[in-house]
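As the next step, I selected for study one protein, both as residues and as discrete backbone shape codes, as given directly below:
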Amino acid sequence: MAEHISEILAMGGVKKRNVEIKPTCSPSPCVHLTGPRCEVEDLKDSLKAFIQSLKTKECEVKGPGAQQFFQGLRRVFQLCEQNSFGSVALPVIGPGIVLSIPVKDAVNILTHEICKFLSGPTGQLHTICIPIMPNYPNSEEMFQTVRGNLSAEMVDSTGQAQVASGQIFTTLSGGFPCKTIMHVCGQRDPAVIKTLAKEIVVQCERGRCRSVAIPAICAGEFVGFAGQGGLDPSVVAKSILEGVKEAPAPLVPTNAIRRGRSATTSGHWASTRMSRSHSLPGALNLSALATSLPDTESRAVFLVIGYSDAEVSDACRELKRAYDNQCTTQTFTPDEMNCLTPDEMDQLLFKVDSLHLKVEMNSSEEWVVKGLKDGVNEVLKLTKDAALRQSREKAQDLLYSQVTWCILGLHGVWQKVPKDINFKLEKKDVKDGFVDTKGVQWTVDLQNMEATSCDSGQVTALKRLENLPDFAVPIYWDNMNKSETFKVIELDQSSGEYETVKMDFKRTVTKTVLKIQRIQNINLRRLYEVRKTELENRNDSMGAGEKILYHGTSKESCTSIMNTNFNRSLAGQNGNYGF
């Protein structure tokens, strides 16, 4: 109650006149009154009588995220730090029609939390803006109160910025080639320097910095020490190294017992949250995983002060109702959970941990997630996105076995496009083009079956192949109708396939090549693939021992070979198929 003595005086209409009131909370809460004896005695009696007439009650709200729900502005700063935000704009909340909080009280709430945040180590958040609308009825009062509350915290009487011993103050890097500059004061104390080094590393981890340069803090001569010499560099180096060694790497957020205050109630936070390591097992055991998650049950305890028992009880009920109204429960089936990839499961576990959610298993082996609505909805969105992704991947896999889209690459070699691009091309969802596996952006003209590189302007061909249920068309073939089992394709003399066959042929026979045809016979291709697989399995590492051979024969024999293959019973009998 001591730190809220000004609010208590306002409640009772007690006038302090010429008496100075100075509340202290440690070592024990008390209020010091200084002034003329008679006025001090009068105020003491009035204050004592009024406090004795007040009704008080301890109100406790339990549940996952209860502590964070009542933190308000403090939670805003935590989220800014977690997301490495560099700035945030916070209006003065409360003076409007809905809450009708006096301007001074609303500003005090805001500036109190800002000062409390700045008093501790900060990460990337270096700018806090308080926007005030000029046409607001109390804008001038608001501005002056904000200015008065914050000016004393940020600078000393000479206007110089204050950096307390053992604390870190961050600023923008300006023209310096770094992300952030941290200002510290080691007070020529090795223990303080060690703590600072540890906190610097922690903040860098939190801000996802990849490197940090820590100078020899407090070594050398300092004007601020009136010409006194600094610490020995070896002592400073040892302190810094010890601090860095003690810093967690990688950083694991942990919560100890916290103590805080509300602007309208006096209370404390007590958290039973424990940090446990959790990693995905090879075979996902949802029950064991749920059991291994951190305990996020927390409680917020308030000391509610009012004029009557009824008012105090109503306030306690309202506190609990406010928390309950913002809580929800969502159930997830094993099938929904099994949709998650290891990365998505890691994201889910991080959300459960950072958003203070509670996870339980019911009798149906389902995950029951409880907590504040925003947190539970984030988990719900993650599982829905995973289900949509899995459904999309199944559709892509099915289509990939039925239809194959190819792009003509360098040196005239056809290449299959990835499954997701294959799906987009088939569905004609290519108004934005696509990016290939090498990061090249392409625009698509399906009417002419062409793709154009956005970088170089290169135009290349596209091809669509339809596979049979038991046969995948080779990538270099042309498309065939479902009723076709045999097709002869004359190769373009400018194609890479034509050049490859021509060069191989020239190694055997030095004759002029007039044309080259590709024989697409599905039945013979099936026999070839079966035989090749059989030889590969039999010969193990040696493989099928496949060779490319050329055979000369008559036109009539060619037709027979193309349709029914070589007659193996005639093997070794030269001349049956010509020379």
